[in-house]
Design goal:
Layout: H1 2-35, E1 41-48, E2 59-64, E3 70-74, E4 80-86, E5 89-96, E6 102-110, E7 115-117, E8 120-121, E9 130-132, E10 147-151, H2 153-158, E11 176-177, E12 203-204, E13 213-216, E14 219-220, E15 238-245, E16 259-264, E17 272-281, E18 298-309, E19 311-312, E20 316-317, E21 323-327
Parallel strand pairs: 1-7, 1-8, 6-9, 13-16
Antiparallel strand pairs: 1-4, 2-3, 2-5, 5-6, 10-15, 11-12, 13-14, 15-16, 17-18, 18-21, 19-20
C-alpha cells in the first residue's frame, strides 16, 4: 500500500513539475510578445468585387510560413481589414468569401516596423475555385510617413565585421555620417563597457550622434547618458534592424536623430542551431615589408545559438504554438 501511495505521489509530483515548466515557458513567451509591440509590423488593405464595390465580411487569413501560426481578420463595412502587431518574417495570405473565388497571396516578407498594404479584388465564383495573385514586394509604405532603411538578416550575417559589432552596419543607411566616437565609452554597453573590434555611432540626418535611440525587441536599449546602446546583442541572434527617422507615430519618441529598431531571431517549427569560432591571428597575415616580424594579434570569438519549438516528451508539443531561441 505504501509503495502504491509513494508511486502515486511521485507521478503526481512529476506531472505538477512538468505543468509548472510549461506554464513558466508560456508566461515568458507571452510577456515577450506584449513587450515587443514597437518591433512588430502591420498589414492593411481593402477588398473589392469586379465592379470596384467594397465587400464586407470577407475572411482574410495570414499564415507565418516558419511557425505555421495563422491569424484571421474580417473586412468591415468599408471593405477594410487590418492586422496589427505582426512579427516580422515570411507570410502567405488567403481571402475567402461565399459567392466569390478564393484569392491567395504568395509568400512575402514583412520587415520590422513595416506597414504593408495588400488590396484584393475577388472574382465572382465558387470558393472551391482559387486565384493566386502575382507575388510582388511591397515597395511603397503608404500607411505611415516615417522614413527608414532595413538591414536584413543576410546583410547582418554575411557582411564582414571587425569584432562582430552590429553598429558598423549603421553607416549603410542613408543620412548616416560617421563621427568620432572617442567619448562613447569604448563602444560597449553601459557606461564602462568596451567593445571588441570596431564600432560606429554615426550622426543620423544631421543630428548629434548622441541623439539616437536604440530599441531591442521593442524595449528601450539606450545607454544612461552617453548616447549608445545599453546591451549589445550577439550578431548571430539578430534577425534584422531598421534605422528610421521623421516618425509621426506616438510609439516612438525621445530622439531627434535616428531610431535603431533591432529585433532578435525567434524559434520556428524546425530545430536549428549553430556553433562558431571567429579567429584572427597574425600567422594568417602577411608581414609588413618594413617590419622584421608580424605584429602580434590574437582574437578568438566563440559562440552558439539554437532555436525551435518547445517540446517536452509526452507532456507538451509546441509546434505551431510555442517556440524558443537563444544564443551566447
Amino acid at each position: 500500500m505504501r509503495s502504491s501511495l509513494r508511486l502515486f505521489a511521485r507521478q503526481s509530483f512529476l506531472r505538477s513539475a512538468a505543468f509548472s515548466a510549461v506554464l513558466v515557458v508560456f508566461l515568458l513567451f507571452q510577456s515577450g510578445v506584449s513587450l515587443a509591440q514597437q518591433a512588430s509590423a502591420g498589414i492593411n488593405g481593402t477588398v473589392t468585387d469586379p465592379s470596384g464595390a467594397v465587400i464586407e465580411g470577407v475572411e482574410v487569413s495570414l499564415t507565418n510560413t516558419a511557425t505555421g501560426i495563422t491569424r484571421t481578420a474580417t473586412s468591415n463595412s468599408t471593405g477594410n481589414y487590418v492586422f496589427v502587431d505582426v512579427l516580422p518574417g515570411a507570410y502567405t495570405m488567403k481571402v475567402v468569401k461565399q459567392g466569390f473565388e478564393t484569392v491567395a497571396q504568395p509568400q512575402f516578407t514583412l520587415y520590422v516596423n513595416q506597414t504593408a498594404t495588400f488590396d484584393f479584388h475577388l472574382p465572382v465564383g465558387s470558393t472551391q475555385q482559387s486565384v493566386t495573385v502575382e507575388a510582388a514586394a511591397v515597395a511603397i509604405q503608404a500607411s505611415t510617413a516615417e522614413l527608414g532603411t532595413v538591414i536584413n538578416e543576410q546583410a547582418v550575417n554575411e557582411l564582414p565585421l571587425n569584432g562582430r559589432n552590429f553598429t558598423q552596419l549603421l553607416t549603410l543607411t542613408p543620412g548616416a555620417s560617421p563621427v568620432s566616437v572617442a567619448q562613447n565609452s569604448g563602444g560597449g554597453g553601459g557606461f564602462a563597457g568596451n567593445a571588441i573590434g570596431s564600432f560606429s555611432f554615426p550622426a543620423l540626418n544631421g543630428q548629434r550622434n548622441r541623439s539616437n535611440m536604440f530599441l531591442l525587441d521593442g524595449i528601450n536599449d539606450l545607454g544612461s547618458f552617453i548616447g549608445n546602446y545599453n546591451f549589445e546583442p550577439i550578431v548571430d541572434t539578430v534577425q534584422e534592424f531598421k534605422v528610421q527617422s521623421h516618425n509621426d507615430e506616438a510609439a516612438f519618441g525621445q530622439a531627434v536623430g535616428g531610431i535603431v529598431n533591432l529585433i532578435t531571431k525567434s524559434g520556428t517549427n524546425q530545430f536549428h542551431g549553430s556553433l562558431w569560432e571567429f579567429l584572427r591571428n597574425e600567422k594568417l597575415d602577411a608581414r609588413n615589408f618594413f617590419l622584421a616580424q608580424r605584429n602580434p594579434l590574437r582574437q578568438n570569438q566563440f559562440g552558439a545559438a539554437a532555436g525551435g519549438p518547445v517540446w517536452i516528451p509526452k507532456v507538451y508539443n509546441g509546434r505551431n504554438r510555442t517556440f524558443f531561441y537563444g544564443g551566447h
